[in-house]
Structure formats: C-alpha cells, structure tokens
C-alpha cells in the first residue's frame, strides 16, 4: 500500500501560478528537496517559511510529509493538525477561492482539508493510535474521498494489526469493490491474497 504523495503536483502548480517570489522561491526549493528525499534540508526551509508567515498551509503540509518520511510522527501529526485548524472555524471548514486574481499567499497555498486528514490518519496508524486512525479513515470514506478505496485498505490493515482477520478481509473486499484505478485494485487483491486466502479472491 503506497502513500500516494499526489499533493506535490498540486504544490507545484500553485507555485507556478504565484506572484510573490520570496516565499514561493523557498517553497519551490523545499519541494525539490522533498522530491529528492532530502527531508531534513526541506524541513529547514519550511521552518523559515513558517517563521515568516504561520498561515501558509502548504509549508505545514509538506513539512508534515517530510516528518512522516523520517518517522518523526509527533511532529508530522502537529503539522497536519495545523493545516486542518487553519481551515476550521467553529464547526465549519472554510475554503477560499485560490484562483481569484487578488488571492494572497495564504489563500493560494491552501491544502484540501481531506488531504491533510488522510495524511493524519496514516500518522496515527504509525503512532499506534489505531482507533483514532480508523475513525479518520472512516470520515474520509463517509465524505466520498477520492482515495476511498485506499482508505478501506488502511482500515483493513488496522484490523490486521489488531488481530481481527475476518473484519480486515471485509474491508479489503470493499477496497477492491470501490477501487477507481488498477493500482488500487491490485493493492486490494494483494491484501486479499495475503490475508484472506486464494479461495475468496473472486468475491
């Protein structure tokens, strides 16, 4: 099961369309370091961006991803929580139109709320906060998140880690059913083959 770091593509598009160069140059440099797996150096640059403006969601999000890759889970969790907090007002999640010609840095560098939730769910899994991780993934499934199948595979994996194979298999079969790509379907089939037995693979 892969991590699907598709947010980098979003990040790069945002950077190409930006007007103010100082912050954008730093984000672009950190982005390239992340893609080169030079996570510690990328984190240093994201720290600088955040020091300048503590409402740049993209800096928190990509720094959280970098922390996740080097297994600094506590720091990653804090960053993904911050992204979500920056979009939460009371009981509502508010997203501004980043394509407006007068959009500022904070608006242009927004990250989709559910993307941050998806990353947070993974972090919680690696921190052994399994129940909380499962709940986050379920929120994404309920919201019909684009990675719905992948979320179900993660939920099945949580059940496996909890020693509940039968429940896990139910989620792996659901993941296969809702897969939108060949990759997700193959991931689900591999989990079924590994944990649920060949005889159930045609279900």
From TrEMBL:
<keyword id="KW-0802">TPR repeat</keyword>
<dbReference type="GO" id="GO:0051787">
    <property type="term" value="F:misfolded protein binding"/>
</dbReference>
<dbReference type="InterPro" id="IPR019734">
    <property type="entry name" value="TPR_rpt"/>
</dbReference>
<dbReference type="GO" id="GO:0034975">
    <property type="term" value="P:protein folding in endoplasmic reticulum"/>
</dbReference>
<keyword id="KW-0677">Repeat</keyword>
<dbReference type="InterPro" id="IPR051727">
    <property type="entry name" value="DnaJ_C3_Co-chaperones"/>
</dbReference>
<dbReference type="GO" id="GO:0051087">
    <property type="term" value="F:protein-folding chaperone binding"/>
</dbReference>
<dbReference type="InterPro" id="IPR011990">
    <property type="entry name" value="TPR-like_helical_dom_sf"/>
</dbReference>
<dbReference type="InterPro" id="IPR013105">
    <property type="entry name" value="TPR_2"/>
</dbReference>
<dbReference type="Pfam" id="PF07719">
    <property type="entry name" value="TPR_2"/>
</dbReference>
<protein>
    <submittedName>
        <fullName>Tetratricopeptide repeat protein</fullName>
    </submittedName>
</protein>
<feature type="repeat" description="TPR">
    <location>
        <begin position="57"/>
        <end position="90"/>
    </location>
</feature>
């Amino acid at each position: 099961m892969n991590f699907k770091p598709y947010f980098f593509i979003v990040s790069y598009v945002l950077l190409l369309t930006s007007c103010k160069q100082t912050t954008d140059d730093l984000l672009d440099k950190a982005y390239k370091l992340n893609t080169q797996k030079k996570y510690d150096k990328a984190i240093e640059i994201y720290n600088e961006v955040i020091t300048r403006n503590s409402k740049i969601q993209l800096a928190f999000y990509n720094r959280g991803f970098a922390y996740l890759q080097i297994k600094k889970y506590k720091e990653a969790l804090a960053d993904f929580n911050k992204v979500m907090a920056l979009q939460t007002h009371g009981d509502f999640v508010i997203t501004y139109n980043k394509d407006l010609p007068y959009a500022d840095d904070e608006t242009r560098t927004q990250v989709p709320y559910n993307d941050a939730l998806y990353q947070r769910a993974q972090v919680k899994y690696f921190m052994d906060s399994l129940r909380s991780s499962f709940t986050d993934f379920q929120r994404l499934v309920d919201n019909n998140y684009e990675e719905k199948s992948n979320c179900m595979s993660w939920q099945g994996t949580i059940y496996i880690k909890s020693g509940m194979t039968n429940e896990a298999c139910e989620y792996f079969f659901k993941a296969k059913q809702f897969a939108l790509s060949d990759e997700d379907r193959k991931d689900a089939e591999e989990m079924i083959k590994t944990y649920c037995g060949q005889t159930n693979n045609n279900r």
